[in-house]
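Predict the assembly for these two chains.
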Amino acid sequence: MNNNNPSKQVVVALVENKPGVLNRVASLFRRRNYNVDSLTVGRTHKRHVSRMTIVVDVARTDVRQIVANLYKLVNVIDVKALTGEPHVSRDLALIKVRTDDVESRNAVTEVCDRYPARIVDIGTKYAIVEITAQEDLVEHLIDELRPIGIVELVRTGVVAMGRGVRILDTDYEPVNHHQTTGDLERYGV
Amino acid sequence: MLLSGSEIVMECLLREGVDVIFGYPGGAILPTYDAMTKYPQIHHVLVRHEQGASHMADGYARATGRVGVCIATSGPGATNLVTGLATAMMDSVPIVAITGQVPRAAIGTDAFQETDVTGVTIPVTKHNYLISDIHELAYCIKEAFYIARTGRPGPVLIDIPKDVQNEKIEFVYPEGEIRLPGYRPPTAANESDVFAARELINKAQRPIILAGHGIIMSGAVQELRELSERAQIPVSLTLLGKGAMPEDHPLCIGMMGMHGNAASNHAIQESDLIIALGMRFDDRVTGNLKTYAPHAKKIHVDIDPSELNKNVKVDVGIAGDLRTVIAQILPGVEGNTHPDWLNRIRDWQEDSSERDILYNYEGNTLIAAQVINDLWKYTNGEAITVTDVGQHQMIEAQYYPHRRPATLLTSGGLGTMGFGFPAAIGAKFGRPDEPVWAIVGDGGFQMTMCEMATAVQENVDVKIAIINNGFLGMVRQWQEFFYEERYHATPMVNPDFCKLAEAFGMPSMRVTSRDQIQGAVEFANSHKGPVLIEFVVEKEEIVYPMVPAGADLDKMIRRPKKGEKQS
């Protein structure tokens, strides 16, 4: 399931899990005038490493420039453009829709059956639909729900991962400054 | 050893080999100022405005290749450094700035003199730190120096809360190697790129080397010269590349760009191969990108991968250290002569000579070109010149040929008016045995002229040459060309600079005609300490040639030849 929108490219970055790193990345995009579709950040299985997924509109920005500039940030450990190689990408959306009559309730149920979506909350007036899928599928679902009546919507932005043996990981461990006197080999003393 | 944060700062500076710091005290940095009294090996220069401190650190760094250090208090002290940091960032100059911050408990409360300095300086520093834990302090300072001077150099700021400066811990200096997993500056080129570059060089009929600041910073002057001489490839320089190749060398064809030598600009446009070394295709050197060097294949070597293909798409892009990469390419470069190409360039050079105002000027007022050229003559072309920004800067670039690297210090990328004089003070601290001349305009000098007090207090042997035309000359030139001569906000009513110098305690002299220049230089040299010479020059001089912003590089406005009308 590759993203088939050629103007969208996915960049993944491993960053130090430190305060201010997101600020540095955001500042970079703003000052370089890069057109970013979405940016997500979250922790990884390594305590000191966070991972960002950045979707870029390459109609206006050269993805190699983005990678090179991200890499210049000291707190960015590794960067990779996933486009052009097989990868999985997912976007999660919560969509609150009107369900205050039979037609709308039926319509929502019927639409959700045709997508990897489910109703996670339903009441007499509104229901919340959850979908986790590739970005374009999420877009399609939203388009279909729109005529029924969307009242609230939230998306996580895209997260992505290379398929198979393509592993983006790091052994990064920060220096333990509190052990300056005890753990001297870290400093080579 | 139980040390306070402030003492740790000083210990770390000592270990980095710092001998001078430029700064201004204030509440949040006072503990560190107090600690300085125990470290007399490090000389502190009290500036009169923190902007001056950042430019002095910059001038020191450009003159020596070492890291310059400036220090300021929180809030306004730190924000006053910002222009200097941005200047250093644009020109890749290694600086470490240390700022005080309000105590940790007060951060975020809009405390007195609190500013989010790390937030403010993210875009204008290579990296910055807010020290939240004293145990990180020594390591961060060490990292800061390492990051500032390696790879593509740049400014690094360390913001230290006051309570961290006061806190005491058992101090052990982190002796080992820096470990920064996300920071791996490139070094050598891979063999296939070296091969491809060599092939293009050996095949080229009309090659040209564009040499920039990177040649000087990586110490590749010899390698550049060898490459140029072996294959007889002419070398054009960027403003910051001046000194990368001796300008009296027959293969050096001078500066390129908006006010560059016409021969360089013509050669670039007609070349079939551009070898860009440590330069970044700034808009001031390319003119219109769509028509830039249309027949040329392009090789670009730069230590910063993000510079490759940024402005100009290149055929071979190499991210690496220039000295290493040129040495890799050299072995396979065949000897060559390119006689037709070099003759063609000579013709352009001759045409330029015929337009040279030095030989054609018929007025009887003093002109800046005469001043600069005579300064060159009477300093034997060996002074370190530090310019400000504007017409005098471009005229310096045209009429003061430099033979050695790091002898012209100037704000190229950011074009910071007010840079010249404080940077000259910093340069003199870095190279005390060499003559240093600050060549400044009357406009820019007034932005940082308070540093005259610093120069006098420290008795810094810096000579100030004010090229005074009573105008913001470069802006006036644009108004003349592009705004129908509406000289709005460019004429200046200036103070009497000589009296001002006197008030600061500095000898001075006013020069109004060419025959006084030699005497003025001798006067300046006869005083050990700062001297101000005011050169009163023609008010409405124009810097030629000029590529209008965004125009094709060879579509220059030229000075007419003798007897010719301006077209």
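The first strand of chain B starts at residue 2 and ends at 4. The domain at 356-536 of chain B is CATH 3.40.50.970 (Rossmann fold).
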